[in-house]
Amino acid sequence: MTDLLRIVYVDSCTSTLDILAEPPYDALEAPFALMTLDQRAGHGRQGRRWQNRPGESLALTVAWPLPAPEFRGWYPLATALAVLDACAELAPGAPLPRMKWPNDILTPEGEKIAGILVRADSRRLLAGVGVNLVGEIEREREGLEGAQTLASVDSLYGDALAGSDERREFGAILSQSIARTFSVVDSGGVGFRNLQTRYAVNCLTIGSRVVVATPGGAKYSARALGVDAAGRLLVENAERGRHVLDAADVHLARPRA
Hints:
The protein is of the alpha+beta class and 257 residues long. The chain contains four helices and eleven strands, in the order E-E-E-H-E-E-E-E-H-H-H-E-E-E-E. Strand 5 and strand 6 form a beta hairpin. Helix 1 (74-90) packs across helix 3 (164-187) and helix 3 (164-187) packs across helix 4 (189-202). It starts with 5 loop residues before the first strand and ends in a 12-residue tail after the last strand.
């Protein structure tokens, strides 16, 4: 199934994630992916805009059969691993981007290359990914102040993304990578445990000091110890002891410089 993932390409759209709730995409059976190089109204988990110039960024959403709830928190994290896998396939030998819990994809300098937003409807899990591929970031635009492109990480990425055909091919690579990774989470067992280990190895946050700011106004430092079976971040603080953080409850969780 994962090697035959149906991919629908549209010339432009508001948001690949949002339009899956509209005809005809709301009636399509998962799995499939919807992709564009011209997304006009992309947004992140906290409503931030995610957009660069048309043709220079990739936006896609993979619709997946709704999984069992107990491991559903791992699909956003698995999506981030799939982005790294797709980068490795796109430009073998190039340094991989970095990853911050739960699923930010960053340059080595900490600038954001890709954003991921995963949500569910009544029958499908929807994994939306936006990747800045090439070009100059319009930093004066809201939401792009700390952004950067994949091509900035290494010239091999720029060479592999030289034209629109190559950028669409990367979208296909990424879609299939997400599907393969989701299949591993679906199956559980040894494959899923290996995926969890791989995430821990590649995640900058784990083992680092982090700053946590909650919606209730609390702010404190802690050490990130790992990720639990539900995809939540396990941290330890002298006053609060060991406890877990959900991405929806954290405004900022990042390694200190």
